[in-house]
């Protein structure tokens, strides 16, 4: 650990035990992503973070990557300012080792293997669950580093309108609104949003020698987006209910590029799904889920000086159909058995002529969850049969013990895999159809419990130690001029988090120490994987005083490298965000946020700029 942030990082768990917010009981969130069944987060035996609607509004976040960067074990690399491509890495694994779901439906690009999280509208999100660690034994491919599931707003209750308007620096303006309701048996939510910004100069590229984006275009790269969401359901009785959901996001952003690569992108992400839940018996629940997602990416070139406008360059489109049937049976008190089958069909199209443009995957899984006094046991296994790479088996096991002082300790082991993308398999002149899936083995020791605090102070802590070995990583092989299973990595990490609440105060902190070692043969053996910081620390302080609420977030990120050879440094940085809120009444609030208050100059990817100090103001109405 080479960064001077090390001393501050080691002090994080101690400093997070000082102040807090309220003496009222804080209810533990219920999560569904860790085990595909609803249970309190503390009973999953997995490392889970939940960002709910109240947290989204408290942070005044403007994008999904902006929210995720505050979590332990998360690394973000963004190619410029607002709306630019963002890679999200969990626990040091690759960006395409993260499975992303929206309301239970798989989303993302089958050609790249990643999801454009920066385009998903924050105003349409009710909750985000982030499970860190392998989950292939329940979800199949991609879930080597973990799973991110985004839930849209659900609605229910009385008819309730909402809206927000915002302005800020860089020519930023936003507006969103919605209507929810449904009464006792039904629920619905309708929402829409629009945002635009002039942005910043995304890239300080170097044409000679080629680096960054490879061009020098010192202009502002703007971004605009608009989206709609709809979710509705009805409970016929306690034993039967049905729900439908839709999320659509359209965006346009400028970037620095050439006539060959383009410099304007127009993206569309859509997901539509339906699910039905039946409870034929008190101990038996059946869930049927179906969905379709689209990822459409179009590239254009514009050069006003040369009178070139909207010149079409490329298009990549993914259509994904998914169907899932899951049966959960309580076989005895505290004993739950789940059996399920997943079917996914991917189709790609666009300007690239792939040798194969479709493939399907059939996965069958089973899970056992049992409680035996102070012991909890979770076992799961899955078999995937993919049209292109054949069969693959994964599994996981976790054992937890709850002590009398409410401290829980859990040991878990899991395997994961990642199927090659269409680009890696079939891209003309580049793909390799002989590729095998990437594979992983992980072990984790986790502990959590209440903090021993005096008086009205309340707090919790969590600690995780883990190691993951990832084999058959796909990388470019200079000997064959094609991708091949030539890389491997060993990743060790520690994550610590704590929060304290006392009257009108809250203080929370988290720390990540990471050793992402490249174990590939050759000159890079022993180097650090690029764009992963060895240390990162975050501290959050908030206070409510009558109608006022003020807060601050400090994030410290250590040094990283941008390349496999560890020759290109990315400096450590410190980001301080300040926020203030005034409630005119329980429904109407005015919020202000000063982002990057220290005006830090930093990069998360080499030669790609990040925004400096900027102020944003939001008026929010939510009865």
TrEMBL record:
It is a multi-pass membrane protein. InterPro entries: B12_transptr_BtuB, Beta-barrel_TonB, Beta-barrel_TonB_sf, Plug_dom, Plug_dom_sf, TonB-dep_rcpt-like. Pfam families: Plug (PF07715), TonB_dep_Rec_b-barrel (PF00593). It is found in: Cell outer membrane. Residues 1-20 form the signal peptide. The keyword Cell membrane does not apply. Residues 43-147 form the TonB-dependent receptor plug domain. Residues 240-596 form the TonB-dependent receptor-like beta-barrel domain. The keyword Translocase does not apply. Transmembrane segments: none annotated. Keywords: Cell outer membrane, Ion transport, Membrane, Porin, Receptor, Signal, TonB box, Transmembrane, Transmembrane beta strand, Transport. Belongs to the TonB-dependent receptor family. This is TonB-dependent vitamin B12 receptor. It comes from Marichromatium gracile. The lineage of its organism: Bacteria, Pseudomonadati, Pseudomonadota, Gammaproteobacteria, Chromatiales.
């Amino acid at each position: 650990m080479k960064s001077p942030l090390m001393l501050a990082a080691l002090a994080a768990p101690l400093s997070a035990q000082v102040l807090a917010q309220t003496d009222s009981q804080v209810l533990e969130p219920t999560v569904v992503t860790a085990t595909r069944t609803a249970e309190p987060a503390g009973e999953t035996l997995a490392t889970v973070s939940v960002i709910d609607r109240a947290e989204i509004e408290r942070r005044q976040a403007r994008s999904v990557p902006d929210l995720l960067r505050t979590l332990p074990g998360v690394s973000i690399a963004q190619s410029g300012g607002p709306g630019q491509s963002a890679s999200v890495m969990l626990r040091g694994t690759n960006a395409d080792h993260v499975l992303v779901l929206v309301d239970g439906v798989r989303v993302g690009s089958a050609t790249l293997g990643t999801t454009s999280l920066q385009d998903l509208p924050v105003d349409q999100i009710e909750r985000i669950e982030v499970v860190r660690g392998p989950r292939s034994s329940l979800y199949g491919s991609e879930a080597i580093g973990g799973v991110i599931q985004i839930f849209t707003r659900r609605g229910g209750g009385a008819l309730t309108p909402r809206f927000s308007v915002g302005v800020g620096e860089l020519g930023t303006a936003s507006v969103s609104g919605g209507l929810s309701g449904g009464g006792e048996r039904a629920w619905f939510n309708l929402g829409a949003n629009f945002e635009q910004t002039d942005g910043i100069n995304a890239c300080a590229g170097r044409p000679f020698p080629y680096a960054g984006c490879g061009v020098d275009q010192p202009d502002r790269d703007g971004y605009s987006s608009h989206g709609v969401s709809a979710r509705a359901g009805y409970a016929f009785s306690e034993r039967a209910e049905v729900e439908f959901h839709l999320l659509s996001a359209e965006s346009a952003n400028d970037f620095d590029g050439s006539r060959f690569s383009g410099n304007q992108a127009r993206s569309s992400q859509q997901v539509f799904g339906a699910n039905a839940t039946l409870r034929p018996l008190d101990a038996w629940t059946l869930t049927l889920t179906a969905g379709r997602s689209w990822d459409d990416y179009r590239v254009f070139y514009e050069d006003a000086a040369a009178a070139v406008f909207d010149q079409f360059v490329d298009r990549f489109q993914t259509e994904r159909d998914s169907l899932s049937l899951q049966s959960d049976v309580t076989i005895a008190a505290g004993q739950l058995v789940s059996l399920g089958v997943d079917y996914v069909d991917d189709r790609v199209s666009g300007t690239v002529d792939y040798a194969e443009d479709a493939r399907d995957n059939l996965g069958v899984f089973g899970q056992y969850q049992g409680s035996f006094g102070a012991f909890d046991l979770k076992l799961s296994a899955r078999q995937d049969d993919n049209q292109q790479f054949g069969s693959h088996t994964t599994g996981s096991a976790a054992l937890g013990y709850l002590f009398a002082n409410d401290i829980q300790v859990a040991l878990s082991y899991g395997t994961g895999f990642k199927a090659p993308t269409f680009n890696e398999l079939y891209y003309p002149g580049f793909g390799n159809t002989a590729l095998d899936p990437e594979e992983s083995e992980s072990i984790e020791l986790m502990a959590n419990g209440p903090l021993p605090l005096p008086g009205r102070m309340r707090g919790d802590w969590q600690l995780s130690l883990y190691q993951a070995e990832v084999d058959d990583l796909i990388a470019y092989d200079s000997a064959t001029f094609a991708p091949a299973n030539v890389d491997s990595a060993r990743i060790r990490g520690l994550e610590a988090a704590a929060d304290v609440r006392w009257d009108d105060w809250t203080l929370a902190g988290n720390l990540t120490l990471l050793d992402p070692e490249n174990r590939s043969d050759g000159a890079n053996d022993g180097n650090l994987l690029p764009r992963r910081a060895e240390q990162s620390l975050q501290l959050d302080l908030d206070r409510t005083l009558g109608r006022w609420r003020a807060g601050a977030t400090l994030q410290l990120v250590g040094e990283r490298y941008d390349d496999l050879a560890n020759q290109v440094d990315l400096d450590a940085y410190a980001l301080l965000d300040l926020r203030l809120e005034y409630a005119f009444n329980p429904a109407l609030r005015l919020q202000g946020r000063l982002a990057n208050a220290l005006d830090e100059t930093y990069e998360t990817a080499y030669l790609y700029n990040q925004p400096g100090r900027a102020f944003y103001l939001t008026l929010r109405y939510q009865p």
